[in-house]
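Morning run. Coffee first, then this:
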Amino acid sequence: MIILIWLLFRVHLFYALLMAVTGYFVYVAVQMVFIFVIQWLIGVENLTTDFYYQKMLQVICSLIALFTSYILSKKRIGFSFVPDRSHAKVPLIGVNRALLHVLIVSSVIIIGIAYTGFEGKLQFAVSAISVITIILIIVQLSLWKERKE
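And here it is:
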């Protein structure tokens, strides 16, 4: 996904990483909320064994992601600080350095969540809290950078 954003939109690799990781984390957070709700409504066994529930979860999460992106584009909220050329120099100081550190940690957490899966409610809750915390950190740093430039 990072390479797709980098090549398709001709942005710097650093900003492609920022956009891809933020997108993954937001989508994972939306799915975690719905999985948590579905666990209470129909039980985890039905979600893991029934193909219909799995596909409905994907469709609902995709529709929410599309609706959210539509609202954000109408309000003109996003990565407006990203330069539109891929050869621009990105100084890794200040906010960019903080974003780089958060992105590296975020990528490791995404890999860890994908590798381990969810074996219990405690691991699910810890994963959900860490994903939401990292989303808030990335959004806060991005808003700070956007206001600064």
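The first helix runs from residue 2 to 9. Good start to the day.
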